[in-house]
């Protein structure tokens, strides 16, 4: 984040002024994200467009861009996951009743203030897959290999038949 820019903002005040704020955060600085990352390098760019909503509450349109390196749950190797996401938020105090007719996500705030960093981190966490996986399962975590039927060619070019002994095992039972 740029030096001198506040993280906590008064939702009502920035909504009245229809403020547009932009922040850049290091991915390694986001505590709830750290365990999901393969490496802490990279940035999260967030844009916040505040406005007063018809319900009378303050709201914001939150848009994020990031390219975190996640851990593939198949091969446990790191891979890039570029993403852009956004949502419309309606702010409410912890004791306020939820508005049933609101089309926006309700975000509970304390003392009328919101942490922009927490809001951006929340949006990023919602945009990430539950079980991250490389986009190409046949080459997941290693050099490409040829797989057809019950034969596989390993990196050295040797043909393996992993199910060749299966027939003998079935005959024994």
Task: Outline the structure in words.
With 173 residues, this protein is mostly beta strands. It has two domains: 8-136, no CATH class; 143-173, no CATH class. Helix content is 14%, strand content 38%. The protein has a five-stranded mixed sheet. It has a three-stranded antiparallel sheet with strand order 3-6-7, with no helix packed on it. 19% of the residues are buried. Mean pLDDT is 82; it is low at 143-152.
Shape: elongated
Distance between the termini: 66 Å
Largest sheet: 5 strands, mixed
Report strand order across the widest sheet.
2-4-5-8-9
SSE-based structural type: mainly beta
Q: Name the beta content range.
A: 35-45%
Order of helices and strands: EHEEEEEEEEEHEEEH
Query: What average pLDDT do the residues reach?
Result: 82
The count of strands amounts to: 13
Number of helices: 3
Q: Uncertain runs with pLDDT below 50, 5 residues or more?
A: 143-152
Count of discrete structural domains: 2
Fraction of residues in helix: 10-25%
Spatial extent as radius of gyration: 24 Å
Please describe the structure with a list of short key phrases separated by commas or semicolons:
elongated; 2 domains; three-stranded antiparallel sheet; 173 residues; single chain; mainly beta; five-stranded mixed sheet; 13 strands
List the SSEs and their pairings.
Layout: E1 8-10, H1 11-16, E2 20-26, E3 37-39, E4 43-52, E5 58-66, E6 69-71, E7 78-80, E8 83-93, E9 105-109, E10 113-115, H2 116-127, E11 146-148, E12 151-153, E13 159-160, H3 166-172
Parallel strand pairs: 8-9
Antiparallel strand pairs: 1-10, 2-4, 3-6, 4-5, 5-8, 6-7, 11-12, 12-13
């Amino acid at each position: 984040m740029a030096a001198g820019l506040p993280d906590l903002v008064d939702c009502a005040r920035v909504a009245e002024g229809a403020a547009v704020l932009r922040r850049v955060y290091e991915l390694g600085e986001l505590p709830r994200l750290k365990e999901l990352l393969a490496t802490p390098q990279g940035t999260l760019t967030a844009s916040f467009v505040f406005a007063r909503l018809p319900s009378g509450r303050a709201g914001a349109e939150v848009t994020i861009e990031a390219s975190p390196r996640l851990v593939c749950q198949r091969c446990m190797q790191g891979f890039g996951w570029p993403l852009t996401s956004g949502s419309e938020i309606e702010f409410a105090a912890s004791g306020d009743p939820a508005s049933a007719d609101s089309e926006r996500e309700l975000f509970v705030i304390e003392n009328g203030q919101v942490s922009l960093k927490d809001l951006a981190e929340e949006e990023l966490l919602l945009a990430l897959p539950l079980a991250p996986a490389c986009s190409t399962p046949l080459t997941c975590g290693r050099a490409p290999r040829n797989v057809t039927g019950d034969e596989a060619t390993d990196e050295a070019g040797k043909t393996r038949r992993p199910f060749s002994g299966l027939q003998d095992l079935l005959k024994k039972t």
